[in-house]
């Protein structure tokens, strides 16, 4: 006990001394009281410091999270019931169509499996420290969408996820119930995007590299991309750019800050897409990462085909879908209109590409670098937004 506390204790002891005590006796009693207080202090164990009090808002968040966790099993049962009801409804609809003379061969036609092509798409998920828990949830659901889009179009690329580990992997193994363990045609690389690019290169050099489809064949026969630098740099760096690393000349990092514009997809090339959801806080992060490693960079030619009313930064899954759509239609304008959300206000520049109906997007606004979207109902937490991620995952699983 400090001296001040001791003095206070002494004063308290003085206050209880009877009034009939003689003046001569008071000093002795005061000394006795003081020694008693100090003696008890010496033998008292030191009390631990009290834990800081939880704020009312923090307590409410904790309670909502606990309620959400407690209801997880109920939500799984409810989703299972919905799937059963949907299948039953589809069976009834098909039976009705057959009764009205529909052709069974058309009604029960199987979807043609996607054809593999010698191009690799790599999600660079090595940005965990730059994201909040909510943003990591969005990224995990975007990764799911990327996988589904890549395998459900006419052509599919070699697909890799680099930086596989940490909280992203933990989330897939826990909240998302290891759904990735059933994925096919995807590689998981704990190392960085260059380690994944080396593995992708070896895969594309085998007899199972994939079919050289028309769009890639025309890229190969056209003499290659010129890689001419744009007149203005979107994100100028203070220091001179290092030389390109010739060992990885078949690797291109897609980033909106690049001074180069992607013309076409080339065969036997790996395209890196930044798996970063950060609401555009870390500007130029993907671009600097690629430049420091001597990797070629490029941005999608959005500005050459569309007039946008908002930023040209897209969600990770949007970039993947644009790439696989281009492999099929070989038209950037059509691919952009099919993928970029309507709310971004993109309009096709006259004479550039094929006019098509745009689709309504989700809540993503960022990506390949910055987004926050596609949260599954099954795996989301209270207070986080999402749209059709759960339905999309069920569709993917049904097709499997």
UniProtKB/TrEMBL annotation:
Spell out the Basic and acidic residues composition-biased ranges. Answer: 389-400
User: Has keyword Methyltransferase?
Assistant: yes
- CDD domains named among the record's database cross-references: SPOUT_Trm10-like
Which GO cellular component term is one of those annotated?
nucleus
Question: What's any GO biological process attached to this entry?
Answer: tRNA N1-guanine methylation
Molecular function per GO: tRNA (guanosine(9)-N1)-methyltransferase activity; tRNA binding
Segments for region (Disordered): 1-57, 355-400
EC number(s) stated in the UniProt entry for this protein: 2.1.1.221
Q: Which keywords does this chain's UniProt record carry?
A: Methyltransferase, S-adenosyl-L-methionine, Transferase
Could you identify this protein by its name? tRNA (guanine(9)-N1)-methyltransferase
Kindly list the organism's lineage.
Eukaryota, Fungi, Dikarya, Ascomycota, Pezizomycotina
């Amino acid at each position: 006990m400090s001296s001040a506390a001791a003095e206070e204790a002494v004063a308290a002891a003085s206050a209880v001394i009877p009034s009939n005590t003689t003046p001569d006796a008071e000093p002795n009693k005061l000394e006795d009281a003081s020694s008693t207080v100090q003696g008890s202090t010496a033998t008292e164990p030191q009390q631990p410091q009290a834990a800081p009090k939880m704020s009312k808002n923090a307590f409410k968040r904790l309670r909502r999270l606990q309620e959400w966790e407690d209801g997880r099993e109920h939500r799984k049962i409810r989703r299972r019931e919905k799937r059963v009801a949907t299948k039953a409804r589809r069976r009834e609809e098909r039976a009705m169509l057959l009764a009205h003379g529909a052709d069974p061969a058309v009604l029960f036609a199987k979807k043609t499996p996607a054809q593999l092509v010698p191009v690799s798409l790599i999600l660079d998920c090595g940005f965990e420290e730059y994201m909040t828990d909510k943003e990591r949830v969005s990224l995990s659901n975007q990764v799911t969408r990327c996988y589904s889009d890549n395998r459900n179009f006419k052509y599919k690329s070699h697909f890799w996820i680099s930086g596989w580990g940490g909280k992203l992997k933990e989330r897939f193994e826990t909240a998302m119930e290891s759904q990735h363990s059933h994925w096919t045609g995807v590689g998981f690389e704990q190392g960085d995007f260059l380690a994944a690019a080396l593995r992708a290169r070896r895969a594309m050099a085998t007899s199972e590299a994939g079919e050289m489809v028309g769009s890639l064949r025309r890229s190969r026969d056209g003499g290659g991309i010129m890689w001419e630098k744009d007149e203005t740099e979107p994100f100028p760096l203070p220091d001179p750019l290092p030389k390109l690393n010739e060992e990885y000349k078949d690797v291109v990092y897609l980033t909106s800050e690049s001074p180069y514009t992607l013309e076409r997809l080339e065969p036997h090339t790996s395209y890196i897409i930044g798996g970063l959801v950060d609401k555009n806080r870390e500007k130029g992060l993907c671009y600097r990462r690629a430049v420091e490693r001597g990797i070629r960079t490029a941005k999608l030619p959005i500005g050459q085909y569309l007039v946008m009313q908002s930023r040209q930064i897209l969600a990770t899954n949007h970039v993947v879908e644009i790439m696989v759509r281009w492999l099929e239609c070989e038209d950037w304008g059509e691919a952009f209109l099919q993928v970029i959300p309507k709310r971004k206000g993109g309009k096709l520049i006259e004479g550039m590409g094929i006019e098509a109906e745009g689709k309504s997007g989700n809540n993503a606004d960022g990506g390949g670098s910055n987004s926050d979207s596609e949260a599954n109902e099954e795996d989301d937490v209270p207070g986080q937004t999402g749209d059709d991620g759960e339905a999309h995952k069920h569709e993917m699983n049904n097709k499997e």
